[in-house]
Amino acid sequence: MKPKEHEEQLQQLFQQHLLDNPMYLKEYVRQHPGNKMAWYLLGREYDAQGKRGKALYCYKQAGEIYEAFEERTMTFSPESEQSLRQWERSRRRQRFRSRLRGAAAALLVAAGVLLLPWSVNDALQQREQAVSPLPQGVTPEQVQQTKVYYVAGARSKENVGAALQQMLLQERLNSYAILASGKKTEDGRWISWPQPPDILLSVEGKEDASQQRIIYHDAESCACQPTEPSKPQAIYRSWAEQREQELVARSAVAAYVRKQGRAPASLQELNQPYPLNTLPGVTPYMEQLFEQQKEQWLKEMPAAVPGSPVPGEGPQPLAAADAAGSGMTSQGPAASGLMKPLTEPLRIIVDKSSHRLAVVSGSFIVRNYPVGLGAGRTPEGTFAITEKVRNPNGKSYGEFGSRGMTLSDTEYAIHGTNKPSSIGKDQSLGCVRMLQEDLEELFDMAPMGTPVTIGQGQLPSDVKRGTPVFHLPMFSEETNPGKVYKWLD
After folding, report:
1. Which helix (H) or strand (E) holds 386?
2. Is residue 123 part of a domain?
């Protein structure tokens, strides 16, 4: 492509005002797939969001535009080529299904049939497809009974041996158990939950401890020939999805007890209409766990003592936030033994220096999103989510996006934005801006009452999103049409 053609395509994008709002680049590319400049700019936008796979696909479509602006040749590994081909096939299937849905919708409307929102059906379908397949002979019930531990401290034969001894002697292993080594974040201060851990060993538990079978999957942890870990890896993936649901449910119950001074009779009490919408809804698995483990949950949650104050009820100085800590010492977790992942209630940390918002549980980073802030206009300290609203001011694509969460009844909030290019920058008037897909996951994951700490130098810069995206069914009415929101944007 000649330089003149480059300029013509760029001028076309300026005329469409797409460079001022990259949010619409994706739709523009769909309508103008031949505009390689648009593909290149969309790739840059995905890169800024940490979506490297999508960025690579866009760069490949951009072809010589990418090579001209980046001053290098675009090369792909065989793995990347395969991933791109799979994504292209997936896009073709999506387009085909979209055409089928359009035809079906036209027929149903003509017949006077009211349609359920296709977006809801698509989300549920994607959620079902995202559930990890289980190995042959393993049932979902067995996954629920599985116990997973992380080895604390450095990954060594000594620490693994100490952790295994603790598993066998102190933990009741009458089902399947896994010992794993978590992946540290780039700053070495946290364990990254979204990154699958290394599976060190598994134990096929028995009532008779002498019959328990120990299977090593890591050569560094034993002087043996390790067994291929595909079975425990598959079980871990399904277990991890269940663990996230349990974490959100336990955190919501803890927040409810702090606020109401009593435990909910059922999880349905968490799904009341606005302004009592602790959570949008709950899954059948969450309800099952609550019925089975309600008393145990309350015993294991020190913060869930009836009548205890809501953390962050009114801004607190940063020192109070630091007292909670990251769940780790300066040297990391304890020197040896076991760690049980995601047992502490969820907290939110906002790091002004790295422009990141993390959902954390103890020493684990569950998610780490890019955010837009307001530099000195964004206050530091500890707050709590005191209001959750869907489509503030009646809009899903307005200045506050599709969701908003007020911080300690102030004019500050975590909300969406119609200026996605401001993410990672200090352009807000003090609020925390998020990309829509990140915000909507956070809204489902963080219950009302979740503590929010805003400070500096607390989080790594690497973006960590969940696969699959965490999603809850919507049982309650969460809009508030009677209020005009005037958060500090």
Report:
1. strand 381-390
2. no
Asked if the structure places residue 16 within a domain, the reply is: yes
| Structural domains counted in the chain | 1
pLDDT band at 88 (very low <50, low <70, confident <90, very high): low
Q: Cβ neighbours of residue 451 under 8 Å, at least 6 residues apart?
A: 311, 312, 324, 347, 348, 382, 383, 384
Look at residue 68 and give its three-state secondary structure: helix
Q: How many other C-beta atoms are found inside a 10 Å radius of the C-beta of residue 164?
A: 22
Residues with Cβ < 8 Å from 159, sequence gap 6 or more?
A: 151, 152, 153, 335, 336
Using left for φ > 0, alpha for ψ between -120 and 50, and beta otherwise, residue 284 falls in alpha
CA distance to 21, 122, 248, per residue, from 109 (Å) = 34, 19, 39
Specify the range with the lowest mean pLDDT, choosing from 56-60, 186-190, 268-272, 484-488.
56-60
In a domain, 125, yes or no: no
Catalytic residue selected from 217, 355, 415, 471 = 415
What are the start-end ranges of the H helices in 148-229? 157-170
Residue 52 domain-assigned?
Answer: yes
Domain of 7, in residue numbers: 3-70
Q: Catalytic annotation on 431? A: yes
Is 222 an active-site residue? no
The CATH number assigned to the domain holding 24 equals 1.25.40
Which residue type, as a one-letter code, is found at position 225?
Answer: Q
- Tell me the mean pLDDT in the region 361-381: 97
Determine the pLDDT at residue 235: 94
Q: Which of 58, 355, 431, 471 is catalytic?
A: 431
61-97: b (≥16 Cβ within 10 Å) or e: bbeebbeeeeeeeeeeeeeeeeebeeeeeeeeeeeee
Per-residue pLDDT of 117-139, as tens digits, reads 333 344 334 444 345 677 777 88
